Amino acid sequence: MSEQRRKERIAGAFSASAGAYDAVADVQWMVSDRLAQRIAAAPPPAPARILEIGCGTGFLSARLKELYPEAQLTLTDISASMLERCRTRLGDGPLYRVLDGERPEELEGGFDLIASSLAVQWFVDLGDGLARLSRLLAPNGRLVFATLGAKTFREWRQAHAALKLDCGTPTYPAPEELPWPPGLSHAVADELLLHPYADGADFVRSLKALGAGEPAPGHQPLSPGAFRRLLASLSGEFSATYHLLYGEIRA
Ligand SMILES: C[S@@+](CC[C@H](N)C(=O)[O-])C[C@H]1O[C@@H](n2cnc3c(N)ncnc32)[C@H](O)[C@@H]1O
User: Considering only CA atoms, which residue is closest to atom 5 of ligand 1?
Assistant: First the structure.
């Protein structure tokens, strides 16, 4: 599948879920709150120009607006429907752009802060995407992001391995594997969060309801029989690990 086709599928899945997203996105809400706290902990001056990548319905955007009421906010997402929800939440003050955050060259640079919560894991090439975004930073600007790490959904992967099935969960980097742009200082912290679900089927339903069901590139869907066996092996309460990476790049 081409990069463009994959992006269309990702945008389509999030657009289809835009109306239901807030009701099912409790992990995403918590992560955006933690990221906002990290952003707020930086010493002054407050950023004057802020870009957000993959703003979704605006969890982090609302926090950025509260933290920096004087800043000019540019809020972007690859899904027009998610961006429209964000506009409903924040109103007409910010600039809104439908944008593939991995290809941000059409934007004028000079941002004091670029922020992104749980969106860059959808990039086809994270290293290239972070490097392109870094080029939009003003001197002393910061790119601060939350993304998923290698241990994410390890229980789900293990359940596949136990039945010798191919797992469609994308591969995520360990903290030390994050592809940093050369020549810029960076830092990363990580956290493991265990989220309970009623059972394996509830886990799958939740990801789909979020719009996050698109599998890794090249993954062949399981046959209905294999999928039934997998869910039967996860029929009791099922907890899934979210391995959260909080990264920062300084210009
Ligand atoms: C899990 S949601 C997170 C949304 C929001 N940041 C939050 O914390 O609730 C992922 C978002 O990233 C967007 N997204 C996915 N790939 C993207 C890309 N290449 N560029 C920009 N946004 C992207 C999706 O449309 C979706 O709104």
Answer: 56
DSSP state at residue 42: S
Residue of minimum CA distance from atom 22 in ligand 1: 54
Ligand 1 centroid–CA 212 distance in Å is 9
Q: How far apart are the first and last CA of the chain?
A: 35
Find, among 30, 84, 37, 33, the residue nearest to 57 by Cα: 84
Residue with tokens 């060259």, as numbered in its chain:
105
Asked if the model's pLDDT at residue 1 lies above 90, the reply is no
- CATH entry 3.50.50.60 includes domain 3-149+171-191+243-250: no
- pLDDT (tens digit per residue) in 220-233: 999 999 999 999 99
Query: Rounded to the nearest whole angstrom, what is the distance from the C-alpha of residue 235 to the centroid of ligand 1?
Result: 30
Per-residue model confidence as pLDDT tens digits over 209-222: 999 989 999 899 99
Say if residue 146 is exposed, middle or buried (CB neighbours under 10 Å; 0-12, 13-18, 19+): buried
21 Cβ below 6 A of ligand 1:
no
Q: Is 94 in the pocket of ligand 1 (CB under 6 A)?
A: no
Would you say 67 and 33 are in contact if contact means Cβ atoms under 8 Å apart?
A: no
